[in-house]
Design goal:
8 strands, membrane, Four Helix Bundle (Hemerythrin (Met), subunit A), Rossmann fold, Signal recognition particle receptor FtsY, single chain, GTPase activity, signal recognition particle binding, receptor
Length: 317
């Protein structure tokens, strides 16, 4: 298929292949058992395939859509061999992801605008939120952008300290206050500083607790309102970070956060340490929110821009 022409550099592609190795191996082990001894894609094979997709964390609703697409292919082509199943899956999942207006970028870039592009980063503690912010700061700076960090997760001292480490490592300025300070105040100071420094990108860390959705909603709404006193249309992107290794729990977190605030993009981390990479397909489809970044390793270069064609190509290689 022309969709699958090589887009990434050889190094990036190798990192992606390696990061998805556990997910791919697990998926194909299940798939080969499901079609063992069968030559034709029939109802039995489709039933088994449905189970393989669900147990690979693709999610029930997305799995049903994929099965329906394959049923249509079978009806149209009259006969499909199980040896063709890999290619058909690859094409149909890429087609499904193509219906979401996202995941086709290859570089770390932000829209051109007259002032800083403000990204507010949300997500529960432990998903890799602060690490993702640090890696984004590194990647944007490497792309020639002037970056400012805002430590608005004032709920945990460790969050401020961790972001400071990343600021030092990437040599970008950080705006912070003491633990327990008003997060909105930190966000306000960060945006003022970014405007004064003619920054290109602002990354605002936020508290990651979900024990009370109303409190979270109120806090994030306040942070947004205060930011808009400095930059009227900020934030330009609300990036939700999800831990891919938690599988179905990542779906639940996405549901909670999309109910609590307007999420405009997603980052899925820790895909290299898990066999649950299928969650990226399900989350992309179910929430209709673009997955912008995926984490496929611990190194700073291992946070990648999500490209749906490269992802599907690596997953079904």
């Amino acid at each position: 298929m022309s969709l699958f022409k090589k887009i990434f550099s050889k190094e990036k592609k190798e990192t992606l292949d390696k990061g998805l190795e556990k997910s791919k191996t697990s998926f194909f082990d299940k798939l080969s058992k499901a079609v063992a001894g069968k030559s034709k894609v029939d109802d039995d094979v489709l039933d088994d395939l449905e189970e393989v997709l669900v147990t690979s964390d693709v999610g029930v609703n997305t799995t049903l859509k994929i099965i329906e697409r394959i049923e249509q292919r079978v009806a149209k082509d009259k006969y499909l061999g199980t040896d063709e199943l890999n290619q058909i899956l690859r094409e149909e999942i890429a087609g499904l992801l193509s219906e979401i207006d996202s995941g086709n970028a290859t570089q770390f870039e932000v829209p051109e605008r007259s002032g800083p592009h403000v990204i507010m980063v949300v997500g529960v503690n432990g998903v890799g939120k602060t690490t993702t912010i640090g890696k984004l700061a590194y990647q944007f700076k490497k792309a020639g952008k002037k970056v400012v960090l805002g430590a608005a997760d004032t709920f945990r001292a460790a969050a401020i300290d961790q972001l400071q480490i990343w600021a030092d490592r990437t040599d970008v300025p950080i705006i912070k206050q003491s633990m327990g300070s008003d997060p909105a105040s930190v966000a306000f100071d960060t945006l003022q500083s970014a405007v004064n420094q003619n920054a290109d990108v602002v990354l605002i860390d936020t508290a990651g607790r979900l024990h009370n959705k109303v409190n979270l909603m109120n806090e994030l709404s306040k942070v947004k309102r205060v930011m808009q006193k400095v930059i009227p249309d900020a934030p330009h992107d609300v990036l939700l970070v999800l831990d891919g290794s938690t599988g179905q729990n990542a779906f639940e977190q996405a549901k909670q956060f999309t109910n609590a605030t307007e999420v405009t993009s997603l980052a899925v981390t820790k895909l290299d340490g898990t066999a649950k990479g299928g969650v990226v397909i399900g989350i992309s489809d179910q929430f209709k929110i673009p997955v912008k970044y995926i984490g496929v390793g611990e190194g700073v270069e291992d946070l990648q821009v999500f490209n749906k064609f490269e992802f599907v190509d690596s997953f079904f290689k």
